[in-house]
Fold this sequence. Notes:
7 strands; Alpha/beta knot; alpha/beta; CATH 3.30.1330.30
Amino acid sequence: MKIKRYIKKSNYSFSFGAFPTIELLTYKLDSVLRVYYSPDAINSKMFSTIAKMCSENEVKFIESNNTVSKLSPKENVYFIGVFKKFDSRILSGENHLLLYQPSDTGNLGTILRTCLGFGMNNIGIINPGVDIFYPNVVRSSMGALFRLNFEYFENVEAYVRRFKNKLYLFDIKGVKYLHELNSITKDAQKAQSKIQA
């Protein structure tokens, strides 16, 4: 299998760097095709960890400075995990974050990493949205992509038809700040209690 630089129609993608590659090997092992490393990686702290994970799981662990430099847009990448793209669907009955047409790969990766940190594991994306498998998304997510459920929707209506969830919309041009919403919710609950009494 000849590995080329990433394009959207590829059936594989890459994890650039040690930590995203460890996350790939830990959470999406069945999708891993191989791991490349540069000779400089041998002196890194993560080398033995990744080498052991590959050995124990019979994943090809290949030294190839040429491949690493050809595939990676940055010089300080010592490990590249190659993985098959995988299907994912968000789960009903859980909280979702719905992103409206995200267009920046680095921002999407950061959002994924932040969502995982806050325990928000289901991410919906309204098209046209950036390709979640784009290597810069994977890298900026620090491998969080491999621990989340995600799904694309053609429009907001398609999402609402399927999940019937309440939507709380956040926009940089919104009229209320996030910290104001808690007091608004409490006021609404008090008013609702008075009505029911």
